[in-house]
Amino acid sequence: MLVHLGTVHLPLYLGVLSVLITTGWAFIVRRRGSLIAFAGALLSTAAEAWHASIHLRLSTRGGPIAEGVATIGFVVVVIAVWIGGQQEQRLAAPRKARRAR
After folding, report:
1. Which of 24, 30, 40, 70 could form a disulfide with 76 if both were Cys (CB 3.0 to 4.6 A apart)?
2. pLDDT one-digit tens code per residue, 22-62
3. Dihedral angle computed from the Cα positions of residues 42, 47, 49 and 51, in that order, rounded to the nearest 10 degrees
């Protein structure tokens, strides 16, 4: 099972941790939508940890639920980042127009 976790799931876990670190950094520098994105990343990370523990116990119960929760967390991250980017673009447009004058 450890070989399976290391070869199949390790890239996924590295991606989840990368999203968590990136959204944490965005939260620290106060980017728009970053609090919700960070919460989604925390949800996804917790669900992946839960899924790994299910694997290590050699159980099949709860695996699909854990992955479903992880997917919901990731979707929350994507939507929060997209909305935050849209808001920042709207706020930046008047600033660019003032600089052009």
Report:
1. 40
2. 999 999 998 888 899 999 999 999 999 998 898 888 887 88
3. -170
